[in-house]
Amino acid sequence: MPARTPPAPPLLNPVIGLWRDGVHLKLAFDRETLAGTPEIGTSGGLDDRIRRRESEFLLSDIRSHIRVVRRDRRIIASAGEAARPARPRAGGRAIIFETIRYEVDDGVARIELNRPHRLNAINSVMSRELPEMWRRFDADSDAIVAVVTGAGDKAFCTGADLADLPEMLLDEQGAPSIASIRWTPLQNQVWKPVICAINGAVMGGGLHFVAECDIVLASESATFCDPHVSVGLVSGLETIALARRMPMGPVLRMALAGRDETITAREAQALGMVGELCAPDALMPRAQALAARIRRNSPSAMARTKRAIWSAKETGLTQASLDAWTVMMRHNQTHDFAEGVRAFTEKRAPRWAPYSGVEPNEAGQ
């Protein structure tokens, strides 16, 4: 009688099942929801690869699982997800990431989630690159405001790529942690202004950007859906964040109806999820024009304004007002306060000081 394969440790059973089943559920859901996208389902033999790896999962610990997932991701990437370096426009400069296009031109950073063949779903590579990208944006005194959008014209972001979900939920020490989800400027405590330009479908984890960017513009063809419960997952983080931006009732309806509830761009605007709608070909010009207006303002004053307003959602009205007063008094001792008053009285354009995400008290000023 052949020897029996020992059962997987209890901790790993749900991880294995989620990884295997999630791949097929995600692909099936995307096929049905966004019909006519030929790239969907071209997983480079992922199903066969999963079967071959299951025995390895049963005999290895969680860290060896991560190494297997990373190796398979690289193999799949070489077949259809080769990194494309960002190309700066004339007068601009770019930082190269594998899954994100990032370039700065005339004070405006353009950030593009760049996995269009997977509808810009966030895999483990993008999940690691997003915090680094936000850190660089925050520290770059040449970048005053950002516009974030998705590559292609079908989707802004369809949430987490379930093929990579187990690895994405682990922190640097290999333990499950909420700290592993740091995709948005707010999650990374970036206080520079960020405009979100929704160019297509937004699903699941993609709603983080809608909930936590400062200004949200959307194409008239954009749609919003939260399919978590339809694939057996809990909808928690992004929907909690959305409830700060729009009424709780529609958030609950979207979260509980799952894949069967899609919000149109016009409905999203009426609910407060989106601030402005644009024709598809006018979305990025409008976002860039708005960014150009914003970048003329004092970078440090904008950062402190944004921080005071977002912090009010955490602390309540009374404490937020006291905190804002402290920030205002501190700002009144800075170069930009004096320069703004002087430029106004002299009827000239102000010359603002560079801002790189460091508050005066943090820099010892």
Automatic annotation (TrEMBL):
It comes from the Bacteria. It comes from Rhizorhabdus wittichii. GO terms for biological process: isoprenoid catabolic process. This is Enoyl-CoA hydratase/isomerase family protein. Belongs to the enoyl-CoA hydratase/isomerase family. InterPro entries: ClpP/crotonase-like_dom_sf (IPR029045), Enoyl-CoA_hydra/iso (IPR001753), Enoyl-CoA_hydra_C (IPR014748), Enoyl-CoA_Hydratase/Isomerase (IPR051683). One of its GO terms (molecular function) is catalytic activity. The lineage of its organism: Bacteria, Pseudomonadati, Pseudomonadota, Alphaproteobacteria, Sphingomonadales.
